[in-house]
Amino acid sequence: MHDLIDRYPTRVLDTPALIDRTDPVVWTSDADPEILGFESRGYLHRTGAISPDTAARCLAEITRIEHDPDLRGDERIIREESGEAVRSVFDIMNLSAIVAEAVEESGAAHLARRILGSEVYIHQSRLNHKPGFVGGAFYWHSDFETWHAEDGMPAPRAVSASIALTANETYNGPLMIVPGSQRVFIQCRGATPPDHHLESLVTTTPRIGAPSESAVTEVVGTNGIDVVTGPAGSMTMFDSNVLHASGGNITPFDRANIFVVFNSVENRLQDPFAAAAPRPLHLAARELPEPRRQPFPQ
């Protein structure tokens, strides 16, 4: 049983709707222009979050993990539908000390605390890879819809940091964000099948947990689309409820990013709101971290 009323019902069987968000986007009174911009657009972008050397060392981890015989068949490594190329590596901060150090260098956790107004913990970490010519698309979605439905995250009090390990150009499948869409929750249609993650993490055309074409058209028509590009080492932090996607990569130029989700400790996971059982722990951590000795920065 849930401790909270479900204010963001989804995976409905009738016609899905757009629901006004009832929670803040920024949970503090931080008047920094960067934070105010995040509140307005649903994301912010920084260059030079990590050094070029750090980015290069993280990028080399893809090859190491891809060819590590001990990780062959590991459920944390997701490969493209079309072949053996690595699409995502989950639990990357436990699999790679180099990546964990890079996330620390980026200052992402500090920024997440400023936005969420509390201590945070890592809900999920992964490395997204779109190798040249074969990198698949990630269809339009709100992360919070999945985390709410399948992980039991009560409210959109979480943010994601995407740290570029290669240049993210307009032509190699960069992140596309619908600015302002964080203020509306887009319901999705259809009941969640058992072990849905086994399909949803691989496919480029999801059946469940994806907004309808009419909903995407409506929200994009109101807000437009921002294409987020930047050099290796840049970082984009975005709200858990913002609508986003990225196209496939048919260029010779790889695109790779570290992806880390910070959830407020005051937003801990419950039972899934629209699934029979929670997803595995490498997709949704359920243990809270040890308390910090210092209070979170205001």
Summary?
Homodimer. With about 300 residues, the protein is an alpha+beta fold. Helices cover about 25% and strands about 20% of the residues.
Question: What this model shows, in words?
Answer:
With 298 residues, the protein is of the alpha+beta class. The protein has a single domain, classed as Jelly Rolls (Sandwich). Helices cover 24% and strands 21% of the residues. It contains eight helices and 13 strands. The strands form three sheets. Strands 2-11-7-13-5-4-3 form a seven-stranded antiparallel sheet. A four-stranded antiparallel sheet has the order 6-12-8-10, with no helix packed on it. A two-stranded antiparallel sheet has the order 1-9. A hairpin with a 6-residue loop joins strand 3 and strand 4. It starts with 17 loop residues before the first strand and ends in a 34-residue tail after the last strand. Its cofactor is Fe(2+). Keywords: Dioxygenase, Iron, Metal-binding, Oxidoreductase. Homodimer. Its EC number is 1.14.11.55. Pfam families: PhyH.
